[in-house]
């Protein structure tokens, strides 16, 4: 092979290799993010953070009104910090009170959490059984791109 033919062969081989490596690199790498936060679930008093939207007329509403073992939980976490600003996580599952820690699923998300999957562990850090005000510790593990 003449030297310039060898160079041409080498150049076309490196273009093919470059094309292969680019397509591999384009595949997104999965990241893991862990988020721990405390949610104030204050349903009574001056600084309420939660409000009942359904219930039995004139009866004081309680989360355990119908079923004492679990409630169905669905929640959107909306981020306002710099890193995940405007992104959301969608959390859903059966909140079984007797299980420690309770676990629900991270079913998806938006923006930086598109196609996210994961799980969230939850514990009651504080509860007032006369008002049902509570503080929940959340520990969310998310796999995302
Ligand atoms: C409600 O919040 C205000 C402002 O933080 C505080 O001064 C007040 O004591 C709170 N009230 C109750 C009942 O927690
Ligand atoms: C988040 O985005 C909004 C506009 O979409 C902007 O007003 C705000 O300053 C941003 N916050 C941070 C912490 O970057
Ligand atoms: C629970 O709420 C009642 C009514 O507001 C209050 O009197 C009591 O001090 C609270 N208990 C705790 C442990 O915060
Ligand atoms: C959060 O949960 C993970 C397991 O998913 C555990 O390893 C970690 O210690 C927990 N963090 C806190 C602060 O509870």
In short:
With 145 residues, this protein is α+β, with helices and mostly antiparallel strands.
What does this structure look like?
By secondary structure, this protein is an alpha+beta fold. The protein has one domain. Helix content is 16%, strand content 41%. A hairpin with a 6-residue loop joins strand 5 (117-127) and strand 6 (134-144). The model has no long low-confidence stretch (mean pLDDT 85). Residues 45-47 line the site of one 2-acetamido-2-deoxy-beta-D-glucopyranose.
Question: Main traits of this protein?
Answer:
elongated, alpha+beta, binds 2-acetamido-2-deoxy-beta-D-glucopyranose, 145 residues, 6-stranded antiparallel sheet
Main sheet specs = 6 strands, antiparallel
Overall mean confidence score, pLDDT: 85
Give the neighbour order of strands across the main sheet.
Answer: 1-6-5-4-3-2
Number of continuous helical runs: 1
Assign a percent range to the helix content: 10-25%
Subunit structure: Homodimer.
Subcellular location: Secreted, Extracellular space, Apoplast
Keywords: Apoplast, Secreted, Signal
Pfam family, one: Dirigent
Topology at a glance:
Layout: H1 3-25, E1 31-41, E2 70-78, E3 88-96, E4 102-110, E5 117-127, E6 134-144
Antiparallel strand pairs: 1-6, 2-3, 3-4, 4-5, 5-6
């Amino acid at each position: 092979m003449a030297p310039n033919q060898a160079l041409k062969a080498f150049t076309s081989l490196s273009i093919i290799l470059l094309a292969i490596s680019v397509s591999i690199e384009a595949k997104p790498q999965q990241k893991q993010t862990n988020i721990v936060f405390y949610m104030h679930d204050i349903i009574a008093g001056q600084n309420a953070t939660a409000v009942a939207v359904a219930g039995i007329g004139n009866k004081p509403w309680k989360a355990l009104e119908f079923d004492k073992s679990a409630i169905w939980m669905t929640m959107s976490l909306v981020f306002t910090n710099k890193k995940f600003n405007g992104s959301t996580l969608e959390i859903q599952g059966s909140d079984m009170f007797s299980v420690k820690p309770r676990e629900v699923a991270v079913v998806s998300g938006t923006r930086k959490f598109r196609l996210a999957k994961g799980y969230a562990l939850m514990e009651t850090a504080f509860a007032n059984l006369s008002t049902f005000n509570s503080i929940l510790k959340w520990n969310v593990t998310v796999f995302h791109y």
